[in-house]
Amino acid sequence: MKKGIIILFAATLGLAACNNYKKGEGDLQYKILKDEGKEKIKEGDFVKLNGIQTVESNTNADSTLVNTYDNERPAFFPISKSMFKGDLVSALKMLGEGDSASFKLNLDSMAKYSGQPKPAGLKTNYATFTVKIEKVLHKTANEADSTFEKKKREFFESEYKGLIAKNKANEASKIKKYIDDNKLEVKSTASGLQYIIEKPGNAERAALTDTVMVDYTGQFTNKKGDGKINVFDTSNEKIAKEAGIHSPMAQYTARPLVLNQLAPGFIEGVQLIGVGGKVKIIIPSKLGYGENGGGPINPFTPLVFDIEIKSIKKGSAAPVAAQPMMPTPAQ
To answer: Per the CB 3.0–4.6 Å rule, which of 66, 140, 301, 317 could disulfide with 53?
Structure first.
């Protein structure tokens, strides 16, 4: 998604919050931002959309829970029966392909019917969804379920292949842009890892069987729509709060990581420094999650990590092959 479009939607989100919404069914409130006049979404359809979900907390007017633009991954949404009046399905049925809108949904109802608890520390009882309908696959009245399921699968596979091809083509330019934008003077290893050693630390180096205690922050190379760094995981509570990914369930402290269970790029980066050392590494996808991706990581996605080694605990087990894993938030 182009930067200008991201900024436009962020601005639209702020604008929508300042204007009156219309009353929909149940507790739904809505504001249509663009209407292309195409056939509206109905039950049984399959939708590709981009969107931003926010809540208003006691400390932040717009705390972002989901942003498909920042994640560079649109959502695919099967339109099933509504769980309650005024749910997201009800909202999406007001739109057609190319349309955009802002909706406010009741969080008590969402929690009751989804089984997921509300976020803590809320100032209001509504979540705001600002969405753009990219494509709609309509199910015709007489179309067999099996036929439409095949059509949905082919549609999704085609869209996903397009995403993969785009990411593969753009990976090198993403890394270059990140380095240029941040005016970094990096060095490269033979494998293609790029790095900056900020502090070398002591002479000790971690072996594959060792457990390292590290403070770290992992981010994508692209910035968020609000201009902030796009952090996906961190052991630093202040950074987590600033990035809007803070979780009251996480333990924000140095974390123990068994080196041979991590991705090759992370292993190589850790082994560049000793205890007390700090390093910034830029991991190309071939040294990270590769062509398949994983979790929130898209295929062919380069990653940036800032790492500080607090201690190294020696291991005794025989080394095993490195797995394409990265640190994940502690619960």
So the answer is: 66
